[in-house]
Amino acid sequence: MQSPDQLARLRADPSLLPLAIEEGLRYNSPTQAPNPLAALEDISIRGKTIHKGEALTAILASANRDPEVFPEPDRFQVGRTPNRHIAFSAGPHYCLGAMLTRLEAQSILAALVRLPGLRLACNSSDLTWIPHDRFRVLTALPIAFEPP
Predict the structure, then answer these.
(1) pLDDT (average), residues 105-113
(2) Is residue 131, in this structure, part of any structural domain at all?
(3) CB neighbours of 109 closer than 8 A, spacing ≥ 6?
(4) Domain annotation covers residue 139
(5) pTM for the full predicted model
(6) Which domain holds residue 30?
(7) Which DSSP string corresponds to 79-128?
(8) Cβ pair 85, 25 in contact under 8 A
């Protein structure tokens, strides 16, 4: 709804819904950062040394906006492909609920995008988020649409 051109594109081609969901996960990752871990050995990353035993965490939301991986990372693009985001982490820490989340999103969004005149019922700057260090959750998502 914050990218009307992309909503129009999705309405014109509903087959883009799975790609739109993946782009939503990348663009506004539900998990911002997993639990911190301790480095198992000294490691140097881009000139910064992390010493064995130091706590570190990957900021998934930042990784999903990496311009070296995602062209125009701050632009929501319904048909973005490839889209190798890590919104649900990766490897042995991959979210067990990822598939359920995708199924829920598909059923909800398939119905929502068909609503005529679908729009935010507030300014996007008025959206508020529940303060949390790991998850990104809106306090509310006020929408409006035209009755059929």
Answers:
(1) 95
(2) no
(3) 17, 20, 21
(4) no
(5) 0.87
(6) 4-116
(7) T--S----TT--GGG--TTHHHHHHHHHHHHHHHTTSTT-EESS-GGG--
(8) yes
In a domain, residue 143? The reply is no
**DSSP secondary structure, 11-62, as one string:** HH-GGGHHHHHHHHHHHT-SBS----EE-SS-EEETTEEE-TT-EE---HHH
Helix axis angle for 17-27 and 98-112, nearest 10°, is: 120
Structural domain includes residue 137: no
Number of structural domains in the chain: 1
What pLDDT digit, counting tens, does each position of 123-137 carry?
999 999 998 878 889
Neighbours of 87 (CB within 10 A): 24
